[in-house]
Automatic annotation (TrEMBL), chain A:
<protein>
    <submittedName>
        <fullName>Uncharacterized protein</fullName>
    </submittedName>
</protein>
From TrEMBL, chain B:
<feature type="active site" description="Proton donor">
    <location>
        <position position="115"/>
    </location>
</feature>
<dbReference type="InterPro" id="IPR036291">
    <property type="entry name" value="NAD(P)-bd_dom_sf"/>
</dbReference>
<feature type="binding site">
    <location>
        <position position="79"/>
    </location>
    <ligand>
        <name>substrate</name>
    </ligand>
</feature>
<dbReference type="InterPro" id="IPR006096">
    <property type="entry name" value="Glu/Leu/Phe/Val/Trp_DH_C"/>
</dbReference>
<feature type="domain" description="Glutamate/phenylalanine/leucine/valine/L-tryptophan dehydrogenase C-terminal">
    <location>
        <begin position="196"/>
        <end position="427"/>
    </location>
</feature>
<keyword id="KW-0547">Nucleotide-binding</keyword>
<comment type="similarity">
    <text>Belongs to the Glu/Leu/Phe/Val dehydrogenases family.</text>
</comment>
<keyword id="KW-0520">NAD</keyword>
<keyword id="KW-0560">Oxidoreductase</keyword>
Length: 67, 430
């Protein structure tokens, strides 16, 4: 994963098995981007569901409202 | 520690920047764009590189590098996201800033284009550290951002919380009487901190709307039409949600984990519930079969919605596509070679710059509400979004017909012509 210096794939948890693309050299945005976290350093969310005000698909660490 | 540079001509042309420049040049040639205005649009207005110190939880001080590239503001304040990622650099920010200029221009918004971020891996920092980094970055940018100057928004690894920190920091630097007049310095805020209803679904709803408008023009009834979606994130989900409400049938979905298909249809809401319980993956959904990934774009369907990432439809798979409409929910999903093949086959493409512009329009509505001290209900936001998207779509569709060009070229022509008009009317100072 560390080889894609210009690509967000470099830090995406899906990169080792990603079915969307094998061309990971220059990806600047992706709907399935999931930033790699060490399990013990996953940050807690500080924005409550009520503050977000929506029941959108909530996949861990995916930007909640901006495409 | 701020570096402000003025570029002569954007020097690096890698990846997205190359694509953005190629599309710009193509449209500029067709409209014979005034050569002086072309010179202006080929470069960025301002590029800020800030190095700032932040104290870490362990007491050590670390220096961070942040970027903000402001491409053009002929039509209004700069607008664009801030991302936190190790790949953030000036080249990436330039390409994405330029892209924002075309997008806001086409959407008819009073905005220019910008992009930026901080070069860091957020996993390496605690939430408290990220808060201090964000606040110190905001302070370093100072009055180079502002509600009437440059309005950041969430992007990769930034979210409503990040925007709330920026807002709070920016407001704190202002005299007390002015603080509440600066709520619109960022968009994508939490609802409780000045965010807008409907911002979450704006991009996906916009994708759906462009499909609906296309169907109206082509006298196609969306009921029972089959569609496939690549990417079941925020954009893919909401686009599918609204298409299903219109009577269309989702027959296949692809995400990072794999591809599934079901001829009889896949319930969008049931799939969402399933993914929530299945670590975000669509694989294993009841009654759907698993596909080879290479089969996905060749599936029998009417509408194809690539809503994941760029360069997915290529010269290698374009000939297999059976859909007669491609709605680009993602940025740049169709490459140059594929587009040529698809257009020859008579397949219509709703270009990304139009198709996924609902997000920035939603941001504009948040900015307007803050600026005017208003709070709009969800139905009001959605109705206004539909009106704005219909206007954009109609202009692109009509221009494509009048000039006998594809919709992507038409979209770029319109975006550039609006900027050209502003420069011609205002002239160049002094």
């Amino acid at each position: 994963m560390g080889n894609y210096k210009r690509s967000i794939c470099s830090t995406c948890r899906h990169a080792p098995y990603c079915s969307l693309t094998t061309d990971m050299g220059n990806i600047s945005s992706c709907s399935d981007y999931w930033h790699y976290f060490d399990d013990d350093s996953e940050p807690e969310y500080m924005v409550s569901e009520e503050m977000m005000g929506e029941t959108v698909p909530r996949i861990p660490n995916k930007e909640p409202i901006l495409s | 520690m701020t570096t402000l540079t003025k570029t002569s001509r954007i020097p690096s042309k890698q990846g997205m920047l190359e694509n953005v420049m190629r599309q710009f040049d193509h449209a500029a040639d067709i409209i014979d764009l005034n050569k002086n205005i072309r010179k202006i649009l080929e470069v960025t207005n301002n590029e800020f590189v800030v190095h700032f110190p932040v104290r870490m939880d362990n007491g050590e001080v670390e220096i961070f590098t942040g970027y903000r590239v402001q491409h053009n503001n002929a039509l209004g304040p700069y607008k664009g996201g801030l991302r936190y990622h190790p790949t953030v650099d000036i080249d990436a920010a330039r390409a994405l800033a330029m892209w924002m200029t075309w997008k806001t221009s086409l959407a008819g918004l009073p905005y220019g284009g910008a992009k930026g971020g901080i070069q860091l891996d957020p996993t390496k920092y605690s939430q408290e550290e990220l808060q201090r980094i964000t606040r110190r970055f905001t302070y370093a940018l100072g009055d180079n951002i502002g509600p009437e100057l440059d309005i950041p928004a969430p992007d990769v690894n930034t979210n409503p919380q990040t925007m709330a920190w920026i807002l709070d920091t920016y407001m704190s630097t202002k005299p007390p009487a002015e603080r509440s007049t600066n709520m619109h310095v960022v968009t994508g805020k939490p609802i409780g901190a000045g965010g807008s209803e409907g911002r979450d679904r704006a991009t996906g709803y916009g994708v759906f709307l462009t499909i609906k408008f296309w169907a109206e023009q082509k006298k196609v009834d969306l009921k029972d039409k089959k569609f496939i979606v690549q990417g079941f994130g925020n954009v893919g989900y909401w686009a599918a949600h609204f298409l299903e409400k219109e009577g269309a049938i989702m027959t296949a979905v692809q995400d990072a984990n794999g591809s599934i298909a079901c001829e009889e249809g896949i319930s969008v809401e049931k799939l969402l519930d399933y993914t929530k319980a299945n670590k975000g993956s669509v694989l294993g959904f009841a009654r759907a079969k698993t596909l080879e990934n290479s089969e996905f774009f060749g599936l029998d369907c009417d509408i194809c919605v690539p809503a994941a990432l760029g360069n997915q439809i290529t010269a290698q798979n374009a000939n297999k596509i059976k859909a007669y409409l491609i709605a680009e929910g993602a940025n740049g999903p169709t490459d140059v070679g594929a587009e040529e093949i698809l257009l020859k086959k008579g397949i219509d493409i709703i270009p990304d710059i139009l198709c996924n512009s609902g997000g920035v329009i939603g941001s504009y509505f948040e900015w307007l509400q803050n600026k005017n001290g208003e709070i709009w209900q969800l139905d009001e936001v959605m109705a206004k979004l539909e009106k704005k998207m219909r206007d954009s779509f109609t202009r692109v569709f009509e221009t494509a017909k009048e000039r006998n060009v594809d919709m992507r070229t038409a979209a770029f022509i319109l975006a550039i012509e609006r900027l050209e008009e502003a420069y011609v009317q205002r002239g160049i100072f002094p």
